[in-house]
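May I ask you for just one protein sequence along with its backbone structure tokens in two labelled lines?

_____
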Amino acid sequence: GVFFYRYDWSQCPDVIVTELQAQITELLTHFQPDPEQILLFGHSYGALIAAELNPRLDPELPIQVHAIAGPLAGMKGFQERCPWDSTWIDLTRKTHTGERLIQWRTVQSEDGAFRNAKVNPMVVDIPGSTVIVLPKTMDGHRLGHNWSVKWVAETFLGLRPQ
């Protein structure tokens, strides 16, 4: 099955992650036998949420987390709005599940959400995670922030040659 989770953008990451974790836990109670594989995709702020959720889930859960064009290193807007607390943003310390995290990064100069940032908010070293840098263009057009979702979906699902 395919499931979507809609969250309130005005909430801080810790609140959203806690709610999403509860929703996933509840959803998994309805699967017998347990699912063979779970794919979780998050884009932009959702990528930060997905990456933070990852180490909170059971290490035995067969999940693969895809963080697409996500400010995993944090951004000023989050710091101003939410307590900048290492319990929810210091992903570098949460290594036990890093191997199931895939970071899909856009080229900063092509990404309208991040191009003016002094430091690329997508760049954070999470031990064990896989980092894939997307190309600058797609189908002859700039591969920016929103198009990254299309590129990842097509590539991951095998619809686009790599």
User: Anything to note?
Assistant: The first strand starts at residue 38 and ends at 43. Residues 13-28 form the longest helix (16 residues).
